[in-house]
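Example 3.2
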Amino acid sequence: MAKSIKYIYSDIRFTINERHGKWWLDFYWQKKRIRKSTELPVNQDNLKVIKKQIIPDIVIGLGLKIEEAVKEDIKEQTLNEFAQEFFEMQRARKEVREHVIEKNVAHYNNHIAPSFGHKKLVDIDIEELDKWQIQLLQNYKHLTVQKFRSVLFSILTEAVRYKRIPDNPLSFVKAPKIKHNADENINPFTDKELLDIYKNSDGYMKNFIFLMVSTGIRPGEIVALSWSDINFDKKYIRVKETVVRGSSGDVKTYSSNRLVDMLPQAEKVLRKQFELTGNQEIVFLSSFHRQFYSHDIIGVNFKRILKKSGVEVRKLYNLRHTFASQMISKGADIVWVSKMLGHKDVSITLKIYTKFIQEDDDMRFKKIEKMGTILGTIED
C-alpha cells in the first residue's frame, strides 16, 4: 500500500505521497491545489530531505515565515547532517555536475568534517573557523585552501537561506589571499614546436592535437564529440557535452554549448580522423575502440610526444591557448575568438590573452582606414 504522510509546516498542510516509487508533494495555496513530484526515490533519507529542505524552500518561496517551533527543532542539526542534505539536494536539482559534487564531498569528508562535522550548526563560531583555516594553510597552498573553504562556505550559506542559522560565520573570516599569475599556466607552442610535435605524432593523437590547435575546443569536449556533431557541409562543430570520469555531461557553462566554426585546418584533421572512426558513433576512440574514460590518457600520451620531440613539456590545455594566442596575435576578431572558445563574455578572453594583442603601425593604419570607412563621411 502506498504511503501517505501528513506534514504541517508554517500553517500549510502538506501531504507527502508515494507514487510510482517517487515522493510527491500535495498542498493548497491560495485556494489552488498544487501537486508535483519531487523526483526523489521513496526512502527515509529522501523523506528527510523533503521535510528539512524542499518544504522549507517552498515556504520561503511563498514569502512565509518559518514557525519558531520549527526553528528550535532545526537548531539541533549538526553540520554533518545538514551537509548530507546539501549534497543530496545538489544531486536532485542537477545544477552541479556529478563529478564536481563527488570532488566537493571528498573535500568535505577529508578537510571539513573532522573539525566541524559533529558540531551543531549554531555552535560553529568564527574563532574556530579562523584557526581551522590557518592550520590548513600550514599544509596546503592558498588556492587549495580556498577550494576547501568554498565548499564549507556554500554549505553554510545554504543553511542561512533555510533559516537554520542567522548568518554565515565563515563570511567573517578573511579568505586566504591568492596571487593570480595569469601567465603561469599559459605557455602556447611556437610554430617550430608544433612542426616538431607533428613529426613525432601519428594516428588519433596527431589528429586530436591539431584539432585542438585549430579550434581551441577543450580536451574533454573533444573526447565527447560524435560524428553527428560534425557538419562538413555547413563547416561547423557542435560542442554540447564533455566527458569526465567515463560520463558524458553538460559542458562547463551555458556559453560553452556552442557551434565552432570549422576552419580549413580543422576540416583536414577531421577528415583524416573520419578514415579511422567514420564507421563509429564517437569521433575519437581509444586503442580498445571505446570512448575515452577521460582526456587524462590523452595528456599522458601528449607528454610522451613532447619529450620525444624535444619540446618543453607542458599541459595539454596549452594547445587551446595556442589557438587563442595565435588568432589574437594575428589580428582575429576578439569577439569571434571568445565565441570559439566558449567564454561567457569577451572580458574573460581579454583577461587571459591581452598580452597577445599586438599590432604594428601598418596593421594599425589599415584599421584606422577601415574604421573611418565604417563611420562614413563627415561634411565640413
